Amino acid sequence: MKKNIIKSIKGFKDILPDEIKYYKFFEDAIGKVSSQFAVEELRLPLIEKSDLFHRSIGDVTDIVTKEMYDFIDKSGASICLRPEGTASVVRAAIEHNLIYDRGLKKQKYWYYGPMFRHEKPQKGRYRQFSQFGAEYFGFSDTNSDVELLMMGDFLLKELNVENAKLHINSLGNMEDKERYEKIIFDHLSAKKNSLDEHQKDTLAKNPLRLLDSKNDNVKEILSNIPTLYETLSALSKNRFDMLMSKLDSLKINYILDNTIVRGLDYYNDTVFEWRHESLGSQNAICAGGRYDNLVNIIGGDDVPAIGFAMGVERIIEILKFNDNFKVKQNISIGIINDSSENEVYAHSVSKDLRYEFSGISFYNTDSSASLTSQLKNAIKINDKFVIVITDDNIKNKNLTIKVSENQMTDTLISLEDLIKYMRNKYE
Ligand code: ATP
Ligand code: MG
After folding, report:
1. 74-107: string of b/e by CB count within 10 Å (b at 16+)?
2. Which of 36, 230, 281, 390 registers the highest number of CB atoms within 10 A of its CB?
3. Nearest ligand 1 atom to alpha carbon 131
4. Could you tell me the distance, in angstroms and rounded to a whole number, from the CA of residue 383 to the centre of ligand 2?
5. Which of 281, 276, 280, 16 is CA-nearest to residue 162?
6. What is the CA(284)–ligand 1 centre distance, in A?
7. 3-state class of 221 per DSSP?
8. Tell me, what's the pLDDT at 102?
9. Closest approach atom of ligand 1 to CA 263
10. Which residues line the pocket of ligand 1, CB cutoff 6 A?
11. Residues 350, 355, 357, 362: what is their CA dihedral angle, to the nearest 10 degrees?
C-alpha cells in the first residue's frame, strides 16, 4: 500500500541549504546598508489584528479583499498573518512612542521577514515570501524621498543586482488622486462594453488600478487621457519636479512612468517601483511610496512618512543567475575514525579543534561505514584536507592527515603540531 505522505502547503516553500547562501548574503547586505544609512531594526510579530490591515491598506484593495490569511482564533478574535510590513511598523511606532523617541521627531526603521498572502502561486509569487522594508517617519521634504531611493539603489549595488530600473510617478495629494480617479472612471464608464467583468469590478472599486493594467483593451482606452503628471496640483507638481531634479544631480537613474500607481490606499505623492526585466511578468523587486496620512489613520498624530518593501525571493532569483555571485565558503574538515571504539577520541579531537578554529567547520563521519567510503565522502566536501584516526593513532597519541598538497599520502602528526600547521595554513 502506498504511504500517505504529508507534504508542504501549496505556495509555501522549504528553503534548503543550497538556497540558504543567497538568503545569508542578502541578510548581510541589508544589515550593512541599513547601518550605513543610520536606519534601526524592528522585529515585529507575524500575526496582527485583522483590523490593522482593513484600516490601513483599504477595504477595496486586492490584499484585503482576496489575499489576507485571516481567521478567528480560539478566543474569538479576528487575527491574520501579516500580508505586509508597513502597517505593523506604524502600529509599533505609535504603540511604543518611537516616532518621538529621544526628543527627535525623525526616525528610520527597517524590518525583514516573512509575509503571507493567499494569492495564486506561480513563479515569483508565493503565499509565504520575505520582504525587507525601510520606513522613514517625520520627514516631509523631498530629501527623505531622495535618501530612501538612494538606500534602495545602494542596496541593489551591494547585492550586485545590475540593470534594475527605477520607475517613479507622483499620485499628488489626496484631492489630486481623487480627481484622477474620476478621470479614469468617466473615461472607462463611457466604454464599459469593452471591459470584462473583472475590469468592471475594479473600475467600480479602485479605478486607479486600471492604469497599470496589462490588458490591451484598457491600455488602448486610457492611452488618450492626460497623464497623472499633467493633472497634478501646483504644490505636488513642484515637489515632484524638485525630487526628479535632485535624482538627476545625484545620478540616480529613473523612468518617469505614468502607469505606476501602487495598489494600496495609503499612498500619496511619490510612488515608485524597481523592476528587473529578467524576471518576466513578476518583475517588481522593490516598491514603495509616501504615506503621509497613514500614521493618523492608524491612530497616531499627523506624521509624514515614506517607505519601500523589497521582495527577497525575486532578488534571490536574480542572484542565482548572476555569474559573479560568490560567497566565502566555510572550510569544512572531516574527521574519520575506523571503529566505533575510537568515536570518543575522534569527538575529543573535533572538540579541541573547534575551540581553536572558530571559523572552520569540523564534522565526524559515520564510523559504521568503511574507512574508504568515509574518506570518499569527506573528500567530496573538502578535497584538500582530511583527518583520520585509527587504533594506531590512539596508541601512539597522534593523528593521520591527508593533504592534497602531498597527493593525500598519510602524514602522522601530533594534535599540537596539527594546530600549529592549521594556524599557518588557514589564519
Ligand atoms: P505585485 O504587483 O507583484 O503583486 P504588490 O504591489 O502586491 O506586487 P507590494 O505589496 O508592494 O507588492 O510588495 C513589495 C514587493 O514584494 C513586490 O515588489 C515583490 O517583489 C514582493 N512580493 C509581493 N507579493 C509577493 C508574493 N506573493 N511572492 C513573492 N514576492 C512578492
Ligand atoms: Mg500583489
Report:
1. eeeeebbbbbbbbbbbbbbbbeeebbbeeeeeeb
2. 390
3. 16
4. 46
5. 276
6. 7
7. helix
8. 57
9. 6
10. 84, 117, 119, 124-126, 129, 131, 263, 282, 284-287, 309, 311, 313-314
11. 20
Ligand located closest to 127 CA? 1
Q: Are 89 and 41 in contact (CB under 8 A)?
A: no
Ligand number, closest to the Cα atom of 152: 1
- Residues 183, 207: Cα–Cα separation, whole Å: 9
Q: pLDDT by residue (tens digit) across 341-398?
A: 788 999 999 999 999 999 999 999 988 899 899 999 999 988 899 999 999 999 999 9
Return the C-alpha cell found at 302: 499627523
Per residue in 25-68, pLDDT tens?
999 999 999 999 999 999 999 999 999 999 988 877 788 888 99
User: Can you state the angle between helices 234-249 and 142-158, rounded to 10 degrees?
Assistant: 40
Separation CA 403–CA 60 (nearest Å)? 66
Q: Whose CA is nearest to atom 11 of ligand 1?
A: 287
Q: What angle do CA 140, 143, 144 make, to 5 degrees?
A: 60
In 162-233, which residue ranges form alpha helices assigned H by DSSP?
A: 174-189, 197-205, 216-222, 228-231
What is the reported pTM?
Answer: 0.90
For residue 332, give the C-alpha cell.
569544512
Ligand nearest to the CA of 262: 1
Where the chain has pLDDT below 70, the residues are 101-104
Contact 308, 211 (CB under 8 A): no
pLDDT at 138: 92
Is 386 within 8 Å of 336 (Cβ atoms)? yes
Length in residues, the chain: 427
Residue 215 pLDDT: 81
CA separation for the pair 258, 212 (Å, rounded): 9
Name the β-bridge partners of 110.
41, 134
Return the C-alpha cell found at 213: 493594467
